Amino acid sequence: MKVVVLGAGAIGCYLGAALSLGGLDVTLIGRGSLKDGTLASGKMQLTDYTGLDTTIPTPEFTSAPDVLASADLILLTTKCLGVEAAGQQIAEFANPTTPVMTFQNGIGSEELLNISNPVIPAIVGFNVAPMGEGRFHRGTEGHIHCTPCQQAAALTLAFAKSGIKFIAEEDFEAVRWAKLQLNLNNAINALSNMPLKAELETRAYRLILSRAMQELLHITKRKGLNLPKLTKLPAPLLPFLIRVPDFLFKRLASQMLAIDPAARSSMWEDLNNGRKTEIDFLNGAVSRAGKESGIATPVNDALVTLIKQAEDQPLKSVSAQTIQALFN
Predict the structure, then answer these.
(1) Greatest CA separation found in the chain?
(2) Any idea which architecture 2-170 has in CATH?
(3) Is 174-324 a CATH 1.10.600.10 domain?
(4) Residues 46 and 162: beta-carbon distance below 8 Å
C-alpha cells in the first residue's frame, strides 16, 4: 500500500516514519525548509516516553503535491487552518477514488475539506514534538482511532512495529468528543507557558480545566453521546478527579495518563512560533455547540478570548487567577 502523508509536520512525520518502519511505502509532503533543516541528515529518529529509540532512513520527501496521484491512501495531517488548501491539492492531483484519512484536532475542520474522495475521520491520541536533527518525540500515551475502513488491518500491523495501537471505532463521534474533552487543556497549557506535566500538577489550572470539561459533558449528554474511556478513568469522572489536591492528583494521575516531563501542547508550539492556533476547533467548538443547544459555556468562551489575544503578541505566562477572572 502506497501511503502519502500530506502536511508532514510533527504528527505527519511521526506517523509516516512509523508506517515506513512497519514496512509500508511512504511519501511525505511538507515544506522544503523541513527537508533542508530537521531532515537534512537523511535519517529520522523516533523516540517516546516509554523509552522507544529507533532510527530509520527518511521516507521519500517532497514539496510537490503531484505525488498524490500515486497514493493508495492519503493521510491528511495539516493543522485545521490548512485543511482548505490541502483539499484543493487533493482535488487537483489525487485520484478521486483514493481514501483520505483526516487527523485534525477538534470539531468542524472537515467542513473545510471540499473533495469527492472517500473521507476516513481519524484521531491521534498522543502528543508529538519535533526535537531537531530528525528526531520526533512522542511525549504522552494514547492511541490512533478511526472510523472502520478497509485499510485498518494493514495500518494496525504497521503501526504496531513502533508500539502504536490503531483502533477502528464503531462510534467514532463519541470518541471524537472524548478526545476533545482532553484537548480542552491545550489552551490552558499554552496560556500557562509550562510543560504539560507541570501545568497539570498545578491545581489552580486544573480547576479551570475541570469546569471546561463539565461544560463539554453537559453538551454531550444533551447530544446523547456516551463518551468512551481514552484514559484509565471514565470521561464523566475526569472533572472530579482533576479537582483533588495536588498531592493526591499526582498519585492518581500516574495511574491515569503517562506524560513526558518535557511534553507541551501543540497550541503552545503554535503560539511560541507566532502561528495562528486551532482554538476555534477546540474550545471554540464547545462554545458553538453550547450556543446551538442553549448551554452556557463561560469557561471555554474565556479561553477562546485569551488565546485569540495571545495570537497577536509575544508568548507570556497567564496566571490561573487571570483566566478565572474572566468567568467567575
Answers:
(1) 55
(2) 3-Layer(aba) Sandwich (3.40)
(3) no
(4) yes
